[in-house]
Every structure is written in structure tokens, then in C-alpha cells.
What does this fold into?
Amino acid sequence: MNIQEILIFSENPDTLVELLTAGRTLFGPAGGRVTAVTIGPTTTEVARDCLVRGADQALVIQTGAASLPAENGLVLGLLEAIRATDPDTILIGATRTGTDVVAQLAQALEVPCASNCMKLRRDEDGNLEIERRVYGGRFTATQVLMGRPQIASIPPNRFPKADLVQEAHGSIKEVVVELPPPRIRVKATLPRVRSAVDVTKAEVIVAAGRGVKKVEDLSLLDTLASALGGVLAGTRPLTGDVDWLPIDRRVGLSGQTVKPNLYIACGISGQIEHIVGMKGARTVVAINNDPKAPIHAEADYSIIGDLYEIVPAFLDAYERTKRT
It folds into this structure.
């Protein structure tokens, strides 16, 4: 098998070094090369970080813009990077921006792409075999991408960040790309409310679902989370339909993927959209008054009952334990 040339890109620096790990998993007996692509005015430092984590090359695409280009500008930058490296495989971070970029890039190259891949491997013919969830996450499909380049997008936090190497051996190359005038002009933006808490790094998460009746009742679960040294998160309805919690505290297929040591699901039915985001938790405790709720099948410990009775009882017992 020939040496594999792998190109990785994400506008998010953390996701980019996760893709570096993903790229390394694809090397066969002949080895391979990973080229990290950064695009924008202040990305040289990100490129250096990729090199000290083992990237073989970093391409810094300079566009002359004062900020990150729009998706079509990122695609044009990536096309230049592809011309410069002729990769066998292209891995894109499946962020909100990356999801648009990977679709446009595949269309521009007239090749297929696989989105939101959970696992990657090479088959004996050098094709890219991937696993991804389909039908809202209910099933896992194994698919094979043939030909080249093979394009796949990978969700953030799916792979660990690449470790630092003892000695960086790669180099940085700058490529200048002139972008056409943007076809869309942004007149104003209104950011959604976000919190200062990163639920993906929490060791303990208390998650709220539709079983929470009023927004004021979230204070009860927040008290539980604080008592355990954790954070409060929620399902899609609470972080989108009613906006009781910031969107960056959403756990699930359309939100964050978390891997805490302890995950307490309060009033959560356990639909697959949510399960996908919390399946990596080490220990799951489910509190739900419906014994047939799907969340119980995912739990290590199930408590069938009203969260409005169970959580206060737990907090009371916890306080008594602290006093003894």
C-alpha cells in the first residue's frame, strides 16, 4: 500500500488536533502523512500547535480577510490546499461551520462524503470504511468510500487530542488565496445565550428533561449538581424549544457529546437523540416515574419515581451525611 496522504481541517483549534488523532488511526503498514490546514489571519499559532502534536505539515491559507471567511471562502481555501497536497483522505470537523463546508467541498470535487463518522478504518484495498449513526441515531451503518479523495466529517470530542511529541519534524507552508467578494452580506447578528460552563469537561453532570415542569424548578437540579461538584445540562426541548438552558448545555446528537464519570438523568425519557450524547458516561443514574422509559435501559442505576420527591430526599440525606 502506498503512503497515505491525509488532509485535516477545522476552524476550531481543539477539533483540529482531535482530527490529527483520527488521521493517525488510518495509517497502514506503509505509514502516512497528515497535513493540517488552517485558514484565516491569525492561524499560524494553531499550525505550530499541530506540528508539536505530530503533524507532518501545516498549510496556512492566507485570504487577506480580517476574520474567518464565510463557508464558501473556506471551501476555496481548502481547494487550494488539496491542489498543493493531493490527499487520499480529507477529514473535516463536523462543527456547525464544518458541516456546511464538507458538503460544499464534496460537491466542488464531485466526490461522495460521509458525515458525522464515529469510527474510521482502512480496508485491505485502501478504501475508507466508516461507521455512522443513521435514522436519527437509532441504527449504526457501516459504509465504504472508494476512490479518492475520500471525504468524511467527524464530530467534536469523538477522538482525543493528539499528544505532544518529543520533537516536531513538520514544517509550515503559507498559501495565499484571493477570495471573490462575498455573495452574502451580514447586516447584524444576535448571539444565543451561552454559559461559561463547558459541559464536555465536567466529571459530574445532572441533566434535566421534559419531566421538569417549570423553569424555576431547574434550581433544584442545579443545587444537586453543585452538591456533587458537577454542572447542570439538559435535553433538546429545554435548550431549544423553551430555552430554559443555554444551547451549549444541550447533550445529544444536536448538541454536546459528554463522557462524565457520573451522569444523573432527571425526568429524561431517553430518546436516541439524547442517548447518543451521553452514552460515553461511566456511570448513569436515571430518575423517571415511567418504568418503561427507554432511559432505564441505558442506566446503571434506575430510580422509578417523581424527581420532585427523590431529588429533595437525596439532598437531605447528603446534608445529613456531611454533618456526621
About this structure: Residues 307-323 form the longest helix (17 residues).
